[in-house]
Amino acid sequence: MASRERALRAIFLQETDRIPHWEFLANPDFERELTGIDPAEYPQRARLRTLEILDIDVEIPPRSDTPASFRVTEEGQLLNEQGKPVSRWGSGTTWAWDHGSLFPSMEEIRRFDPVAHFLCREQKEIFEDIDPLQRFLHLPLEAMSEKLNQDFHTLQDLVGERTLVPGHYYRTLLMWPLMLFGWEHFAELVYSYPDDFKRIWNGFFEISLKVMQAFARTDIEVFASHDDLCMTQGPIFNPQWYRKNLYPYYEALWEPLKKAGKKVIFISDGKLDAVIGDVLACGADGFFAECHTDLEALSRRYGKDKVLVGNIDGRIIEQGGREDIRREVERCARFGKECPGYFFCVGNHLTHTIPPENIRFYFEVAQELGQR
To answer: Residue 261 contacts by C-beta under 8 Å, 6 or more apart in sequence?
Structure first.
């Protein structure tokens, strides 16, 4: 069974020969050892060969063979193309994560109009860590959709049946103000200036709705919708706040995708136990779960009719011995085999800090224990 076929069958809750993988690779040493190709020099070529060898069923490959662009100071600090401090991530770097730097004061935030800024004019300065789609946001809906569809077909045609390429949007709604304003200013806006918050929140919703409408017109089959609602201990905001201020927007955002027959998979960091029932009620067809979430318990409730992804603890893959890794994969395979839409996935990526031999063993054990 080809990887793309296996992924689609699992997404649609149909029988598969084994538990599929939906992974995020960020370990160049592993890819170099596996393929003989240096991903620091040829990131796309190395990933394509990796997909041939490992049968990863869902993945977004690098869009080109252009290496990541960054420089290292004499003190050893990594700087991105804009000169902002970053940290190593895979063959490249993290985003700058300088949330709030564009808005040093609350007065500037309260005057901000997201629609006028992003939808009504072409962006002169593009920061990929703010939103890689911002270069398209000002376009008419049909033109924006054509750009997204071209990008999808470029990648899906590139990998063929080796993997399924999903649509993806990082800033479903909550991430917009978190990333633009920073957490402290966003919280102050919410609780001290409710009228301004509502106006700005509605503006971000209008932007994201256009994105969802554009993706709904493309040929993608699966859409990953990301918002970090939780931390390791649970929700950032009280679940009641989400029910009042967030979930009604989710329903409206995902409606165009659902009407077009796309499957919506929700992604969030942290412990999702207290929020995921509400998220699924908004129309999501499934969700990712890091190790902090009790996915085994949730699988008993949602495993027959929802797509479940993840729960493999990356700390065990990084720091554990072979028996530790085997037990972790076995734990997820035990409940995952009972769920037609379950995917193996290491939460928060297979990072460059994991020994390559541990990643290789993880895939070997998953292949063995994931057979249905």
So the answer is: none
